[in-house]
Specification:
mainly beta
């Protein structure tokens, strides 16, 4: 244990010393970077269902350094998860090392990278490699990437294997993406109100496994699985329309129960922006679109692509972490509308500082599917019924309802000292889809959430923020209350106290409080945080990708800094 602590502290010490220096251009080039650490000391708390942590303390830390001189660049990231990762992060991250390193060179429109890299094609339907540290998600590619652009023509090519904790995926990713921006390519369109971009991508995953035995069946598996997409972005003046369609060739895997049905995904978004208002409407449909470098992988492991979520990503505690929606790659279809108003300054309703209003609504359904009938198959002298390996057919209608969300948020600044934000949200969620366990037999939750967020700027150095939230529901764990008081002493200190109370739990003994106190110190590009209290079990989602957050009690130390 002491060895782990000392190693982690040495990482922080190195980063603190490094970050005390300001990077300067010189003959040796420029060194920049980022470092962070989260240390949790766990206390036994069986009342809230917190798991026992024998190690008592766990740490996640990293140090990323990036060097550049002229067109040459290189970098590396050291990671430290000891004695094990924080609760809720996959324990296969346990260990320490330098998994991410790269070098590259840029010359005019050409950019070549060898080593680790993150990349996205279009909206991500064919390829998106990225890091979401809070989720314990990191699927960067290790290999080669080439990018080239000239006069509005952009081309990317990638080849590599995907990170799989401390090793690499068995499958290899190969892909190409191209896009033409006609406003840059065609001189007559350079200053035109009309805008047009067209692009497309193709990604192939090569997997070494050639067959799969299920019962008495021996399935021949495709060695290469392709995923092709085309996209269009056009606009005129304040109006814009964008869409992307992707088609994935048959990809039998664990997530789809080894069916040979091809997958498809479609996104469509239209926006209009005027002086004091704007509207955005989006639609999507996903059908059997789980795409990985390993057909046995499940959860968030080894995902090659990404499908954007349409429902709003909330930031307030009760709306964001109790019943958030996760994208269903196996199949879903949905709509979202987002409307923003700015009540002008000087108007009766807007007053001296104006007022902002956001109205958002989204709804998600499953697909209208029909399972294909089993077929009679002869094995030796036996005839047995085996499932049709095409799986199902999906119609144009609506399937089961998964999620609904309607919310309205109003922000009003009364004067130089007072600002208020209020939000109302109504949601309906199918917990069988959200993979959240229910206490009763009813897997459906209908909830109302209210938020009031008041800021009082006392003077140029001090401000007080008070936040109150409430969730009313008769289902699952019942109603919740949340209160937060935060005092800021600019430019360095911030102190807060928060409590969440499960006021409506159907079991009276579990109507518990979850208090949490925090102190934050900011020093330039450094941020230090100390927190103590209870962490409620819930779900953390970023961009529609989610992970379970277990209950915990204890002390947390956090640091993030850059130079």
């Amino acid at each position: 244990m002491k060895k782990h602590i000392l190693t982690g502290l040495s990482v922080l010490g190195l980063s603190a010393v490094t970050y005390s220096q300001t990077p300067k251009e010189n003959n040796w080039g420029t060194l920049t970077g980022l470092a962070g650490a989260d240390v949790q000391f766990y206390t036994r708390d069986s009342i809230i269902g917190a798991p026992v942590v024998p190690e008592k303390m766990r740490m996640n830390a990293f140090l990323f350094l990036n060097y550049r001189k002229g067109g040459f660049y290189a970098g590396a990231r050291m990671e430290f998860y000891q004695p094990k990762p924080l609760l809720g992060i996959d324990e296969r991250f346990q260990g320490q090392g330098i998994p991410y390193y790269f070098a590259g060179y840029q010359y005019k429109g050409l950019d070549i990278t060898a080593g680790g890299f993150y990349e996205q094609f279009g909206n991500g339907l064919t390829l998106r490699s990225y890091e979401a540290r809070q989720l314990g998600f990191d699927n960067f590619l290790q290999g080669f990437r080439v990018k080239y652009n000239v006069k509005g023509i952009y081309i990317k090519g990638v080849f590599g294997r995907m990170r799989d904790f401390w090793t690499w995926s068995r499958g290899t990713v190969r892909g190409i993406d191209a896009e033409i921006n006609f406003n840059e390519t065609v001189p007559k369109l350079k200053n035109s109100k009309f805008r047009l971009r067209v692009g497309g991508s193709f990604v192939s995953v090569n997997r070494p496994d050639g067959e799969k035995v299920i019962g008495q069946e021996v399935l021949a598996l495709p060695l290469n699985v392709g995923n092709a997409a085309g996209r269009l972005n056009l606009g005129y003046g304040n109006f814009s329309l964008s869409g992307e369609f992707a088609y994935k060739f048959n990809d039998p895997s664990t997530p789809n129960h080894y069916i040979y049905k091809p997958g498809a995904s479609a996104l469509l978004t239209a926006t209009y922006a005027a002086t004091n208002w704007g509207i955005s409407v989006g639609a999507k449909r996903i059908d059997n679109f789980d795409y990985r470098t390993d057909r046995e992988a499940v959860g968030n492991r080894l995902l090659v692509n990404w499908v954007p979520m349409l429902n709003k990503q909330h930031t307030y505690a009760l709306a964001a972490s109790i019943y958030p929606y996760a994208v269903q790659y196996v199949g879903e279809q949905g709509l979202q509308a987002d409307l923003n108003f700015t009540i002008p300054r000087g108007s009766k309703l807007g007053g001296k500082y104006g007022m902002d209003i956001n109205i958002n609504a989204s709804i998600v359904y499953g697909l209208d599917t029909t399972n294909r009938p089993s077929r009679a198959t002869v094995f030796g002298s036996d005839t047995v019924l085996t499932p049709d390996r095409y799986g199902y057919s999906a119609g144009a209608g609506l399937g089961k309802e998964y999620y609904q969300d309607f919310n309205i948020e109003i922000t009003k600044k009364f004067n130089k000292k007072w600002k208020l934000t209020v939000m109302y949200m109504q949601l309906w969620a199918n917990l069988n889809v959200l993979t959240v366990s229910t206490l009763g037999k009813d897997p459906f939750v209908h909830a109302h959430i209210g938020v009031a967020d008041l800021t009082w700027r006392i003077n140029n150095s001090h401000s007080l923020r008070i936040e109150a939230e409430g969730m009313y529901t008769k289902q699952d764990q019942g109603s919740w209350l949340m209160g937060l008081v935060e005092w800021t002493f600019a430019p360095h200190w911030s102190v807060s106290l928060m409590n969440q109370y499960n006021i409506g739990h159907p079991v009276p003994e579990k109507r518990l409080n979850y208090p949490l106190g925090s102190v934050v110190y900011n020093m330039g590009s450094h941020r230090f945080q100390l927190s103590y209290g209870r962490q409620r079990a819930g779900v953390l989602c970023i961009g529609g990708v989610c992970r379970a957050v277990p209950a915990a009690n204890g002390l947390t130390l956090g640091y993030i800094g850059s130079f």
